[in-house]
Amino acid sequence: MEDAEENSMFETSHVLGALLASSPLLARAWDRCAAAAAMGAASSGFAHGDGGGDGGTVYVAFSGLQAALSVARPAVASGADVFAPVGLGGDAAGARAFPQLAAAEPDAAAAGERVAVQALALRCFLKLCGSPEFQMLLNQIRGKAVVFTGHSLGGAIAALAALHYLCISSLSSSCSPSPVLCVTFGSPLLGNEALSRAILRERWGGNFCNVVSQHDVVPRLLFCPLDAVPVHVIIGMQLQQWPGHTHHTGVMTTRVVDAEQEGLRQLIQAHVRTVAMEQKLVDPESRGGSPYRPFGAYVLCSPEGAACVDNSTAAVQMLYATFAACYTRGDTTSLEAAHSCYGDLVLKMPQNLLLKRHLHAMDVLASMSNSNYDAGISLAMEASGIGSEATEATTARYWLKASKRAGRSPSLNCAGLSTRLGRITPCRAQIEWYKASFDADMGYYDAFKQQRSPKKFGKANIYRLKLGQFWDGVLTMLDNSQLPHDFHRRAKWVNAARFYQLLVEPLDIADYHRNNLHKTRGGYITHGRDRRYELFDKWWKEKGAFSGTSTGDTSVTATARSKYAGLTQDPCFWARVEEAWDQTESAQAEHDVAMLAMKLGRLREFERYARELVESKEVSIDVLAPQSSYTRWVEEWKKLLLRDEARTASLF
Q: Any idea where the EDS1 EP domain is (predicted)?
C-alpha cells in the first residue's frame, strides 16, 4: 500500500530546487551580498536595499570580512577557540538578543544539551547589534518583507540577524509579523542540535534557506572535530575574495597548497560520512566530534541545477553524498573557487534549467518505468551533482525519498488531524450540554468543582480528559515537526484551539482547586496551568496581530456585544475569582492597617476588571448564576467594604 501511494506522488526536491533556482530571489540576494562585501572593512558590516521589483521586499546582506579580520589579526590557529559553541543563556547579551531561544534552554538542559551557537558568529553579531546603524535598520524594515542574506561567515551572521528579528517581532504587540527569509550562501554551520530543536519549536524552520555548492568545504567544515578545523583555511578563503580590502589592514593571505587541500577534503569527507552513517551528530564529549547541526532548508546546487531538502537528517546525508560524489570523480576545483562560485551558479542554473532539462528530461523519464516519482528523484540527483553511477547514488536516492516523505507528511498529518478533530467534536458538544444544564443555577465551573450530579460529572470529566489528550497530541506533533510550519497560524486550528480552551480550561481550574493543589503547588495561573493553554494564548494573540484586530485575553473588545458571550473570553477568569476569594478571606482576618489597605487595593483592581467584563458582556451567563463563585464573591466583597467603612468611621 505504501509503495502504491509513493508511486502516485511527484518528487518535490527537484521541483522546489528548480523553482527557487529559476526565481530572481537567489540572484538578488547574491547581488546584495556582493554589495556588502564591496563596502570593505571600514563599513558597518551590512548593506541593504530593495529587491528591484520584489514589491517592497528589503534585502539586508552581511559581510563576513570583519569577522575574518578579527580572527586573522591575532593569528588564532585553533578551531576550538574560534568556533567553540557558546550557550545563549550563559551570555547576557545573547539572552537579550534571543530571548525565546535562551528561554528554551531549561528543556534543552534536561535533555543534556543547551542552546548554543558558534562563538565567532555570535561575537560579531552582538557587536553589530549594538550599533546605532543596525538599530536604525531594524526600525526601517519593521512591517516590511525582509530577506536577510550573507556569504560564508556573513551567512552565519545573517542567520543570527534573522533569528534576532524573528524574536523581537514575535514579542512585539505593536506591529503585525512580517514575512522573513534568510538566504545563506556557503555558510558554516551555526548552532547545535538544541538550537535546531528550538527553531522547530518556534516554527521558524521554514524561514531559513541555505544554498550549498557540491564542492564547497565551508558548509561541511564544522562537522569535523573543532580542534582539527584549520581556521586559516576558512579565514583565508574569506579574505582572498576581496584582496583589495585586506591590503590596507596589514593582513597577509596565502592560498591553500594542493597537498593541504587534499588533506582537508579527506578530513571533511571522513567526518561528514561518520555523521551520515550514524544518522546523528557525533557526541562531542564521547567521540571528539562536532556539536553542530543544520537547520532550515538546504538547497544543494551544481551547474546542473538544484535540489531542496528541508529535513535536517536528510540534509546531512545529502551534504555528504554531493561532496563525496565530486571527490570520487577526482574533481580538482580549488577550495577558493568552490567557495566563491555562487555568483556564477545563480546565473547559470536558470539557463541550464531551460536548456538541459528540455534536452534530457524526456530521456530520464523514458528510462524510469516505475513512476514519475522515481523520475523526479533522478532529476534531483542530477541537479545536485550526483550521477547515477556514483557510489553514493543509492544513499542519495534513499534520503531524497525520505526527505520527500518528511516534507509531505506534515500536510497528510494535518489532513488526518482534521478527521480526528471531527471525531472528537462530540466530546466538546457533551461538555457544552453539561455547561448549559447548570447555567441557571451555579454555573458549570462550580458544579464541576463540587461534583454536583455525579453521573454528569463523571461523563464531563472523561470528555475533558479526552479533549486534553487530543490537543496534547497535536502539540507533540508540532514539537516533532510533523505538522506544517504555519499550522499555528491557520484560522481553523487557532479557532478550534481557542474554543476548546475557553470551554475546558475552567474545568481544569475547577479540578485544580477541588484537589486543593493551589495550597500545595501555588496559584493555578503561575504553577498549575498546562503548557497547551499558554501556547493557545500565544496563537490567539498572533492571530490578532495578523488580522489587525484585538484578541487580548483580558481586554474589552472594541465592538460592543448585544448579549452575553457563549463562553467567558478570559480563560483564566475562574482562577482569578479563586484568587479573589483567598485574598478576601485573608483581608477579613487582617488586623494590620497597612496590609489591609494593600489587600483591599488588589481586590478593587479585580472587582474593576470583572465589572468591565460583565458590563461589556465578555462573560458567559453562567458567571452571573445565583450560586456561582463570582456572584457569591461579589456579595462577600460588598460586606467587606461595609466593614472597612465602619472601621474607618470608628477611627474618627
A: 429-642
